[in-house]
Write a structure and sequence with these properties.
The protein is an alpha/beta fold. 47% of the residues lie in helices and 14% in strands. Strand 10, helix 12 and strand 11 form a beta-alpha-beta unit. Helix 4 crosses helix 5 and helix 14 crosses helix 15. It binds phosphoenolpyruvate and magnesium ion. Magnesium ion binds next to helix 18.
């Protein structure tokens, strides 16, 4: 039976392929039936995996890291051993293999989901936090089952595969960067969740917030994913398939046509020069940035260097990553955002269950709470600044103390390099992200203290409209054209232009061609976005007249009625 599911499109284009169901975080867990006569050996395989992990834990106990207190480490290993040996993890999956005739990985995944759900309901926050330990132990068992103890999971994904997941974390999606597949769709998430943002950088059609896709879609079913319209068609008939093949071809041709303007100077009809830069997550994203004509990196989300690993990147490793980006972008400016960990981007050792993670210890708050970690990153960035133009960008600032503290720690990092006679750019510019309403409303102070600002609209919208950007239940409330948002944006841009300080927008709206003109009309001249959007936005800039847009924008800013705002923005785009 053919049917259609609607969600939020996060990355344009059309994909046609077969569904591969995956489970949260444990990416390669596929489900297959085990023949009755193979059930015993499947259960034995599970037992062997448990034994392997027992040995791993024993080994770990013998090699206590020097920088960790011995007693703490022993307590950690003991806890993980207890979890491993508890019958809920070591026995129940075998019962599931038997009763469901399924593979061991799937049985483990089902039991893990069940345990995590049970723990999520516990009121005591210490016990609730233990679900992270259960997940870690289960992942060890899974890796042992897959014959790759100690390694990060690697998905076996093919080009015509469409990943169907209930939820994926940004860390999960970043793993996909090393694999080729057609598309991914998820039940949860909003269009500006970090998961969706990484999906955009993969440049494959993707849809989130489908609510029931994971339940309704069966393994291997034929799917069409229309990432532009946010639609998934399950089991399409031949007529629908040929219509979408045609649309896919058209999309491809349009993308090819856009490549012609790659080297064209970015200026409006009335000769206003505009800067179009790239947002990147990892050094290898520079390739796409250059292919799409980016004139710099406006946002390097460095926290992705910290994800999908059991340890933290050393100062030298970070320095190499930043230096590589500077070298590969040959003479272009690179804006390195200090890590924005916390909320939906957790890192081992610093993850804690916060009652309200988006409002918790995230970004600069975490950096100030962990000054040693921050110090290493700052030194690494400063060292890389000896090789080309680097700017430092501080995320989620909300008050003057945070700016002062961040500036103080940067000065300390410089001093430590001076003491070791290590070179760096003494005039490195320091900027702040304006993504908390408090920062937007006290923009004058921020402009006095900082060299430049970059508006993070994903968070600015999240915090101003009070909608969790990762929650699909409120995704429909995400509205960049809410009069409050337009008012804030205009105030920030105007204030920065007035004092002659550089202002950019690096949130997802910078890559939305429908909003290019209203931002130009507000006086914005610097946009940073995922490379995949650069040429579409450039096309828009090349055909715009800022003088005319300024007047139309003023009219929109005086309007409160949302429908009327939509009409006026549409009229700008004809
Ligand atoms: C933003 O909030 O708009 C932004 C660019 O930062 P991030 O999406 O990484 O939170
Ligand atoms: Mg942000």
């Amino acid at each position: 039976m053919s049917f259609t599911i609607h969600g939020a499109g996060v990355s344009g284009g059309i994909a046609i392929g077969h569904a591969q169901l995956t489970s949260h975080a444990l990416l390669e867990v596929t489900h297959y039936t085990v023949a009755k006569n193979k059930i015993r050996s499947e259960k034995a395989r599970f037992d062997r995996a448990i034994k392997t992990v027992q040995k791993e834990l024993k080994n770990l106990e013998k090699h206590i890291p020097t920088d960790v207190p011995e007693a703490e480490f022993e307590a950690f290993i003991n806890l993980h051993r207890m979890i491993l040996e508890d019958s809920t993890l070591s026995e129940t999956p075998k019962e599931l293999i038997e009763s469901m005739s399924c593979n061991a990985e799937w049985a483990l995944k089902l039991q893990l989901d069940h345990l995590v759900e049970q723990f999520s309901k516990i009121e005591d926050s210490y016990l609730r936090e233990r679900k992270a330990d259960i997940r870690q132990v289960a992942e060890r068992v899974l890796k042992a089952l897959l014959g790759r103890p100690g390694q990060a999971p690697v998905a076996s994904i093919e080009e015509n595969t469409i990943i169907v997941a209930h939820d994926l974390s940004p860390a999960d999606v970043v793993v996909f960067k090393h694999h080729k597949f057609a598309s991914f769709i998820t039940d949860l998430g909003g269009a500006t969740s970090h998961t969706a943002i990484v999906a955009r950088s993969l440049n494959i059609p993707s849809v989130v917030a489908l609510h029931q896709a994971r339940t309704l879609i069966q393994e291997n079913e034929m799917l069409i994913v229309d990432g532009t319209a946010g639609v998934v068609i399950v089991n399409p008939d031949e007529t629908v398939l040929s219509e979408y093949r045609l649309r896919q071809e058209q999309w491809y041709l349009e993308q090819q046509k856009l490549k012609r303007i790659r080297r064209t100077k970015t200026a409006t009809i009335d000769a206003v020069e505009v800067e179009l830069q790239a947002n990147i997550e990892l050094p290898e994203d520079v390739k796409a940035a250059k292919e799409n004509g980016a004139t710099g990196v406006g946002l390097f989300r460095t926290e992705f260097l910290f994800l999908n690993r059991g340890d933290l990147p050393s100062e030298d490793e970070q320095y190499e990553a930043y230096r590589k980006v500077v070298n590969d972008m040959k003479g272009c400016a690179i804006t390195i955002r200090t890590f924005d960990l916390g909320a939906d981007k957790q890192v081992e050792g610093f993850s804690r269950v916060a009652p309200n993670p988006a409002l918790g210890q995230r970004a600069i708050r975490l950096c100030l709470a962990e000054p040693k970690l921050f110090h290493h990153q700052l030194r690494a960035i400063l060292r890389a600044s000896a090789h080309g133009k680097i700017r430092i960008l501080i995320p989620m600032l909300s008050n003057v103390h945070e700016i002062d503290q961040a500036l103080h720690l940067i000065a300390e990092a410089k001093k430590s390099l001076d003491a070791e006679k290590i070179k760096y750019d003494k005039n490195v510019e320091i900027g702040g992200m304006i993504e908390v309403p408090a920062a937007a409303l006290s923009i004058q102070t921020f402009l006095q203290k900082l060299d430049f600002i970059s508006i993070g609209t994903n968070d600015l919208i999240q915090y101003t409209l009070a909608i969790d950007r990762a929650d699909d239940a409120v995704a429909h409330l995400y509205d960049p054209m809410h009069p409050a948002i337009l008012g804030l944006l205009s105030t920030i841009i105007k204030a920065a232009n007035r004092v002659g300080k550089s202002v950019a927008v690096c949130g997802e709206i910078a890559g939305d061609p429908n909003l290019t003109r209203i931002l130009l009309g507000m006086g914005l001249k610097s946009f940073s976005m995922h490379p995949a959007h650069l040429l579409t936005v450039k096309q828009k800039v090349l055909t715009s007249n800022v003088d005319e847009l300024r007047i139309a924008t003023q009219k929109i800013l005086r309007t409160q009625n949302p429908d009327r705002i939509d009409q006026l923005v549409d009229a700008m785009n004809v």
